[in-house]
């Protein structure tokens, strides 16, 4: 085997990979960094109103629009929507920085969410267009690990910015980063439409756009997000009942429309494939555990151990460091091992980390005793999380990659909300004021998280079996004189070699 044919340990460097990772990190950080500055926002411009709406509006807009934008990118092309997303996100960050009152800030946050949706929905498709074979798995793994790690790092970054420069700094930091990302995107993104974008423009694309389904999805996810973010200590009200009915009715109507729409926002038949359904469940559970679990662990660090916000954030660094490193390992392993077993092993290690933390934490536990379980948590999340994205792309036709990216991002946002709300209820049953009560609540959350990790192991080994995940397409031959000649032609490469497809694969492709 020649040197250039040896398997790669890292995805080949490219401007597209750097762009997608940096832009996604910017969006993910903004999802949580603002929460650190809420007390300062409330004291400055809220005028007695709830500053939590600043977080809610962003989550609603991002979660509701990502699936829609992902489906549109399959028809309209990646480049224009990605550039528009970066531009809208950056300009709305400028508007948020200058906000004179809470209403202005919330409007800017809705616009930020729309830009974030366009960025998130195009990340995986851009990587799928640029890479193939093992390189694609590694690139998607790097993207997923970096995005998760960025979310875990955000509390540290946000705490330093807010404490040093004030709450406006958490929005102002997006301006130079967004401008740099936009300039890089103009330079490195191909002008030709990506997979699914060729030939889908103008009035023809508009006629094939599922506008009704998109509106119903926005309404359903928006209502569900509002319900999940309601204060847990307040009694259930008639308004909450109305929001619940709206969420259920809109979601049911959306699913009904998708079964009949000629170009649906979400192709429901993708879920008839066990591997795809297993990957989506794994995405949902991953965010429930990572975001929901970390919220109450940080609360234990601050109220149980008496650490400062910055110190509590720094103690989370073992998780994101292990997540990044082991994410690449997980992406590499699925080239030689069954993906379901790799994902299951990752969740098992993550569950061990949760269980060990539940056993160790007390109001007097030294911080250094928690480092090894935190490393296990991060390492397991990296091993499990990165291959999930690659599996979802492998079992999907190229013209559906944007739709899959939207589904992944939507379920990730939903999982973050569900995890925070559901594990918050667990925390409230055990927790209360005082270090001992906070520790009891965190211990209960970690115990439930360990049980959910066991469920994720079962999902992975059952649904993502070897025969249900087709073999990876070989990477393009590395003998051309220019990198551009080694890239797959958008819209033509097939992630599933015909010789390795089983009858189920053939049936699915015939239907879609």
From TrEMBL:
<dbReference type="GO" id="GO:0005886">
    <property type="term" value="C:plasma membrane"/>
</dbReference>
<feature type="transmembrane region" description="Helical">
    <location>
        <begin position="167"/>
        <end position="190"/>
    </location>
</feature>
<feature type="transmembrane region" description="Helical">
    <location>
        <begin position="341"/>
        <end position="361"/>
    </location>
</feature>
<keyword id="KW-0046">Antibiotic resistance</keyword>
<dbReference type="GO" id="GO:0022857">
    <property type="term" value="F:transmembrane transporter activity"/>
</dbReference>
<feature type="domain" description="Major facilitator superfamily (MFS) profile">
    <location>
        <begin position="16"/>
        <end position="468"/>
    </location>
</feature>
<feature type="transmembrane region" description="Helical">
    <location>
        <begin position="404"/>
        <end position="429"/>
    </location>
</feature>
<feature type="transmembrane region" description="Helical">
    <location>
        <begin position="140"/>
        <end position="161"/>
    </location>
</feature>
<feature type="transmembrane region" description="Helical">
    <location>
        <begin position="80"/>
        <end position="98"/>
    </location>
</feature>
<feature type="transmembrane region" description="Helical">
    <location>
        <begin position="311"/>
        <end position="329"/>
    </location>
</feature>
<feature type="transmembrane region" description="Helical">
    <location>
        <begin position="12"/>
        <end position="41"/>
    </location>
</feature>
<feature type="region of interest" description="Disordered">
    <location>
        <begin position="470"/>
        <end position="512"/>
    </location>
</feature>
<dbReference type="InterPro" id="IPR011701">
    <property type="entry name" value="MFS"/>
</dbReference>
<feature type="transmembrane region" description="Helical">
    <location>
        <begin position="241"/>
        <end position="259"/>
    </location>
</feature>
<feature type="compositionally biased region" description="Low complexity">
    <location>
        <begin position="470"/>
        <end position="483"/>
    </location>
</feature>
<dbReference type="GO" id="GO:0046677">
    <property type="term" value="P:response to antibiotic"/>
</dbReference>
<dbReference type="InterPro" id="IPR020846">
    <property type="entry name" value="MFS_dom"/>
</dbReference>
<keyword id="KW-0812">Transmembrane</keyword>
<protein>
    <submittedName>
        <fullName>MFS transporter</fullName>
    </submittedName>
</protein>
<feature type="transmembrane region" description="Helical">
    <location>
        <begin position="53"/>
        <end position="73"/>
    </location>
</feature>
<dbReference type="Pfam" id="PF07690">
    <property type="entry name" value="MFS_1"/>
</dbReference>
<feature type="transmembrane region" description="Helical">
    <location>
        <begin position="441"/>
        <end position="464"/>
    </location>
</feature>
<keyword id="KW-1133">Transmembrane helix</keyword>
<feature type="transmembrane region" description="Helical">
    <location>
        <begin position="367"/>
        <end position="392"/>
    </location>
</feature>
<feature type="transmembrane region" description="Helical">
    <location>
        <begin position="279"/>
        <end position="299"/>
    </location>
</feature>
<feature type="transmembrane region" description="Helical">
    <location>
        <begin position="211"/>
        <end position="229"/>
    </location>
</feature>
<dbReference type="InterPro" id="IPR036259">
    <property type="entry name" value="MFS_trans_sf"/>
</dbReference>
<keyword id="KW-0472">Membrane</keyword>
<feature type="transmembrane region" description="Helical">
    <location>
        <begin position="110"/>
        <end position="128"/>
    </location>
</feature>
């Amino acid at each position: 085997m020649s040197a250039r044919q040896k398997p790669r340990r890292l995805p080949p460097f490219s401007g597209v990979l750097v762009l997608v990772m940096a832009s996604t990190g910017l969006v993910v950080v903004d999802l949580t960094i603002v929460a650190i500055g809420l007390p300062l926002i409330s004291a400055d411009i809220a005028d007695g109103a709830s500053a939590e709406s600043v977080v809610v509006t962003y989550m609603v807009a991002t979660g509701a629009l990502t699936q829609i934008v992902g489906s549109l990118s399959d028809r309209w092309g990646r480049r224009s929507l990605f550039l528009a997303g970066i531009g809208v996100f950056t300009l709305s960050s400028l508007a948020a920085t200058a906000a004179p009152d809470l209403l202005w800030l919330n409007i800017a946050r809705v616009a930020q969410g729309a830009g974030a949706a366009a960025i998130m929905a195009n990340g995986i498709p851009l990587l799928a267009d640029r890479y193939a074979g093992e390189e694609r798995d590694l690139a998607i793994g790097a993207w997923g690990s970096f995005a998760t790690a960025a979310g875990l790092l955000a509390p540290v970054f946000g705490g330093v910015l807010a404490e040093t420069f004030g709450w406006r700094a958490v929005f102002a930091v997006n301006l130079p980063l967004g401008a740099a990302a936009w300039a890089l995107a103009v330079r490195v993104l191909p002008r030709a439409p990506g997979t699914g974008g060729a030939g889908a423009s103008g009035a023809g694309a508009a006629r094939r756009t599922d506008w009704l389904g998109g509106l119903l999805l926005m309404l359903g996810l928006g209502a569900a997000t509002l319900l999940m973010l309601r204060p847990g200590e307040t009694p259930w009200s008639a308004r909450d009942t109305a929001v619940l009915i709206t969420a259920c009715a809109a979601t049911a109507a959306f699913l009904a429309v998708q079964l009949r729409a000629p170009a649906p926002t979400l192709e429901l038949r993708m879920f008839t494939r066990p591997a795809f359904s297993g990957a989506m469940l794994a995405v949902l559970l991953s965010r429930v555990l990572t975001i929901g679990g970390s919220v109450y662990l940080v609360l234990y660090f601050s109220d149980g151990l008496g650490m400062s916000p910055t110190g509590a954030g720094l103690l989370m660094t073992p998780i994101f460091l292990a997540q990044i490193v082991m994410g690449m390992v997980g992406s590499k392993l699925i080239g030689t091992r069954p993906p379901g077993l790799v994902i299951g092993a990752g969740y098992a290690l993550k569950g061990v980390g949760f269980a060990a933390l539940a056993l160790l934490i007390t109001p007097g536990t030294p911080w250094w005793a928690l480092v090894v379980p935190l490393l296990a948590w991060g390492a397991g999340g990296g091993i499990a999380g990165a291959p999930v994205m690659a599996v979802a792309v492998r079992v999907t036709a190229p013209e559906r990659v944007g739709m899959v990216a939207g589904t992944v991002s939507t379920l990730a946002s939903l999982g973050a909300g569900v995890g925070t709300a559901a594990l918050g209820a667990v925390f409230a049953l055990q927790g209360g004021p005082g270090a001992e009560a906070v520790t009891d609540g965190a211990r209960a959350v970690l115990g439930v998280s360990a049980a959910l990790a066991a469920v994720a192991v079962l999902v992975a080994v059952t649904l993502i079996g070897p025969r249900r995940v087709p073999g990876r397409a070989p990477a393009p031959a590395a003998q051309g004189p220019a990198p551009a000649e080694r890239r797959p032609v958008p819209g033509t490469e097939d992630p599933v070699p015909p010789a390795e497809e089983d009858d189920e694969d053939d049936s699915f492709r015939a239907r879609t």
